[in-house]
Amino acid sequence: MPAGKQNAPENPIPAQRALGLLLSQLGTHAALSFGRKIAGFGISPPHLGMLRWIHANEGKNQRELASHLGVVPSRMVVLLDELETKGLVARERSLHDRRSQQLQLTGKGARLLEKVERIATAHDADLGSSLTAPELETLIGLCAKLAAHRGLTPDGHPGYGKRFAAGRSKRKLGNQSKAG
């Protein structure tokens, strides 16, 4: 058998269906692997996205954060409570609108973000290690183009808001059918 045929899959996926599958596989691998790498810090990838945004947008409120990251407001409160309990984030009443709470990183939060960003940089380098620098640049550019075309935000994740909203809807429907 020729050497090239030994590694070929028996039933290759048609090219027109491969993109979604490959992106899904790579995305899941990258997310799970990164989540394991930062778990020892007591935070998850959604927490990191929040810390990054707060760092870049000190003084903005949690509604703006929820909107930017695509997280439903009730879930945002839970995630912020977790970060506040760990001493990473502080909420302060706005001087301009007493109903609004401004967000800022604490010193502990800023130090943690610095450590986790180093891990994220190493994680990204590992993910792209099999590519040349020009290939990596092209891949990032193409992925950014695909994401922008679909209105995805750089620090957000479309699954967070929808997943939690969908979970509540299913529970609500299940409870209504049990009551009926």
Please give a structural write-up.
The protein has 180 residues and is mainly alpha-helical. The chain is built from eight helices and two strands, in the order H-H-H-H-H-E-E-H-H-H. Strands 1-2 form a two-stranded antiparallel sheet. Strand 1 (89-93) and strand 2 form a beta hairpin. The protein is elongated, with a radius of gyration of 20 Å.
Structural features:
two-stranded antiparallel ribbon; 2 strands; mainly alpha; 180 residues; 8 helices; single chain; Arc Repressor Mutant, subunit A; elongated; 6% strand
Rg from alpha-carbon coordinates? 20 Å
CATH topology of the domain at 43-122: Arc Repressor Mutant, subunit A
Weakly predicted, low-confidence segments: 162-180
Query: Structural class of the secondary elements?
Result: mainly alpha
What characteristic shape results from the CA principal axes?
A: elongated
Number of strands: 2
Order of helices and strands: HHHHHEEHHH
